[in-house]
Design goal:
- By secondary structure, the protein is an alpha+beta fold.
- It contains 16 helices and ten strands.
- The strands form two sheets. It has a six-stranded mixed beta sheet with strand order 7-8-6-9-5-10, with helices on both faces.
């Protein structure tokens, strides 16, 4: 919620209207969003933070950085009436978004208990966040919320945990770097504000090629939260909502990005979506859409969108696994799935996004190239092997979530948690 308010309540010597005008005048947009990023090599490690993103013309860089420094140093959190308007708007937008993106909410919920990052992703972007904003919107007095916001800001906007990426023309890079260094100096915290590091934080180099010779604190790094004692558990959750259709998902914990089986699972997701689930869920079942996909966080997710069926779709997911295990697909089917995956892996990168894979996710160009080679090397046998190894019943921990209308069979089934 704090991130929602960053650019909407004013900062420095400006109220929220003046702030909005300056952002419109001097930048191509400024945004703040929460991120929970799984480690590419370990499903039980993740990095938690916020992403501050903006763009501007070269001549407006000092003005844009001044807007950011105002946000860090003197954001306004004193207008309860404005806060109430923003909270009501946010709660309504989130509520409306469930009907448009219900399959995404279902996937987040189904994966919630499978990895440590999954629970936070659900809290920040899933049904838990929808319920939280609704609860805040229904509060009669927001004074307590206003009092907490400055403390939250002080914790979140900590320059000691900041790393920056700058995309500019080669001719301007030196001048831009100087401006950014000045900005970081302006927002530096006082020593008395510094906190002791958490014991379960592991520092890894931003450059994955640095290897074991990296010394914490010696260079750009990612501060990952490790939860080695985490135990994934199976959960089936049903959200009864005033919709005429269902959003269904089943998620399975598999392997991280750098694992040798990751590429095969990516291809299998596209293959089973196009050659089996589309026919079963959309053509026969009447849903608007459905499929399967492998996520970068190691979660293999089945889903359906605006689906008249619920439990029957879960059976279709299981039948899709059996179809994959039996290898009922041709080499041409594999080739088509590979082309589909490569169309996204090798999609053009916008100039403003260059370098972000390493900055945010710890994924180097060498790691991406290795994945390309593994995707190209996928065979019929490797696909049936991963289907048997990870997707069979009892092979890996899975989670299920359904969002939809009242369902008597689910209500009577004690294995479901009904919300």
């Amino acid at each position: 919620m704090h991130l929602l308010l960053c650019f909407r309540m004013g900062s420095g010597g400006m109220d929220y209207r003046q702030q909005a005008q300056q952002i419109e005048l001097k930048t191509g947009g400024m945004s703040v969003s929460p991120e929970v990023i799984p480690d590419p090599a370990d499903l039980d490690m993740y990095e938690q933070g916020i992403i501050l993103n903006s763009s501007c013309l070269e001549r407006n860089l000092p003005d844009m950085l001044h807007l950011w420094s105002d946000l860090f140093n003197s954001a306004h959190f004193d207008d309860e009436a404005r806060l109430r308007v923003l909270v009501l708007m946010a709660a309504q937008e989130l509520s409306n978004g469930v009907s448009h993106s219900g399959h995404m909410y279902a996937m987040l919920r189904a994966g919630r208990t499978l990895t440590p990052a999954g629970e936070l992703q659900e809290a920040f972007s899933g049904m838990d966040q929808v319920k939280f904003m609704k609860r805040i919107a229904e509060m009669s007095d927001l004074t307590a919320v206003l009092r907490k916001l400055p403390r939250i800001k002080k914790h979140l906007l900590n320059p000691e945990n900041m790393r920056c990426a700058v995309n500019a023309t080669p001719q301007q890079m030196s001048a831009v770097s100087t401006e950014v260094e000045k900005f970081v100096g302006v927002i530096a915290r006082k020593k008395k504000d510094r906190k002791v590091a958490r014991l379960n934080v592991i520092e890894k180099p931003l450059d994955p090629m640095a290897g074991s010779g990296f010394i914490p604190g010696s260079g750009a790094s990612r501060k990952l939260i490790s939860e080695p004692t985490f135990k994934p558990c199976q959960m089936k959750t049903y959200f009864q909502l005033p919709f005429p259709v269902n959003y269904v998902s089943e998620c399975v914990r598999t392997v991280p990005y750098t694992h040798q089986d990751y590429a095969s699972l990516c291809i299998l997701g596209r293959l089973v979506s196009a050659k089996f689930l589309h026919g079963e869920i959309r053509e026969k079942g009447g849903a608007y859409g459905g499929g399967a996909r492998m996520g970068s966080g190691g979660i293999f997710a089945f889903y359906s969108y605006r689906d008249p069926n619920s439990v029957q779709t879960l059976s279709a997911f299981r039948n899709g696994v059996e179809w994959s295990k039996a290898g009922q697909f041709s080499q041409q089917d594999i080739d088509e799935a590979q082309l589909s995956v490569f169309s996204s892996v090798d999609a053009p990168v916008a100039p403003s996004d260059k370098g972000l894979n390493r900055l945010l996710y710890g994924v180097s160009d060498e790691m991406k190239q290795k994945l390309r080679e593994e995707l190209f090397a996928v065979t019929h046998k490797s696909l049936t092997d991963v289907a048997n190894r990870y997707l069979g019943i009892g092979q890996r921990t899975c989670g299920v979530a359904i969002l939809g209308p009242a369902n008597e069979s689910i209500n009577k089934d004690p294995s479901w948690v009904v919300r």
